[in-house]
Design brief:
By secondary structure, the chain is α/β, with parallel strands linked by helices. It contains nine helices and eight strands. The strands form three sheets. Strands 3-2-1-8 form a four-stranded parallel β-sheet. Strands 4-5 form a two-stranded parallel sheet. It has a two-stranded parallel ribbon with strand order 6-7. α5 links the parallel β4 and β5. α2 packs parallel to α9, α3 runs parallel beside α4 and α4 runs parallel beside α5. The longest helix is centred in the last third of the chain and has 18 residues. The chain starts with a helix and ends in a 10-residue tail after the last helix. The structure holds 3-phosphoglyceric acid. The site of 3-phosphoglyceric acid has 10 residues, from β8.
């Protein structure tokens, strides 16, 4: 299930975890990310404008991999899918959200931190889960231990990932991609200047390219 999406995810290497408070930031943020070679965004439902941000971003940048994050219930999943989200990310394991997304053919990455949660996800046909908060739950070393019994499973770690440890995470086969806020912190563009986002995202993609060997042209500006 969702193999095409998983391939895209691996090619992207990094998904920025976006928290937007102002709808007017949507397009300049997307523009900065795209020009840095990072054509993706997980728009979190931590602010009330998330669905509007998703529809606005997709309308203006249809090729961008725009998904919804921090989806906590089926109602939010519905709102995100109606807005055009191409994938859904949830911090935890909720079988209702998984069933809703799969029945709509929308890739879902649920959170799973324990062997039991991974078993439940795999039972529902989901072999890629979010590992959050990665740093607090033992980071790469926990992921490697979980990979023992779950040899087909792959992880999207988020929480505590940054330019200093990204390469280490991405070099591990168990990691399909990484997520995080380090290049899109709201404080970086509170003055309306998105150059810091561009610079941090560019540096990030340099690490991605040197670590996962992205085929030429694939993670380039749209
Ligand atoms: C998430 O929602 O995945 C995390 O809050 C991102 O964590 P970070 O801010 O440490 O990158």
């Amino acid at each position: 299930m969702f193999e095409i999406f998983y391939e895209k995810l691996q090619t992207l290497g990094v998904i920025p975890t976006v928290i937007l408070n102002d709808i007017n930031d949507t397009l300049p943020l997307a523009d900065a990310l795209i020009h840095a070679g990072m054509p993706s965004a997980e728009i979190t439902f931590r602010t009330s404008i998330a669905a509007d941000v998703i529809s606005n971003m997709i309308k203006n940048f249809p090729n961008m991999e725009v998904g919804a994050g921090t989806i906590l219930n089926i109602g939010q999943a519905k709102q995100a899918i109606d807005a055009g989200a191409k994938y859904i990310v949830s911090p935890g394991y909720n079988s209702g959200i998984i069933a809703y997304c799969t029945s709509h053919n929308i890739p879902i990455i649920p959170g799973a931190l324990t062997a039991s949660e991974i078993m439940n996800a795999e039972d529902m046909g989901i072999f890629v889960t979010k590992f959050f908060p990665a740093k607090q739950f033992g980071g790469l070393s926990t992921i490697q231990s979980l990979r023992g019994p779950f040899s087909l499973h792959r992880f999207l770690p988020t929480g505590g990932i940054n330019l200093n440890n990204l390469a280490e995470y991405l070099s591990d086969e168990a990691v399909i991609a990484c997520g995080g806020t380090w290049m899109v912190k709201p404080s970086a563009f509170c003055d309306g200047d998105f150059s810091e986002v561009y610079e941090l995202a560019s540096k990030t993609m340099k690490v991605v390219r040197s670590t996962i060997n992205v085929p030429q042209g694939q993670s380039q500006p749209i």
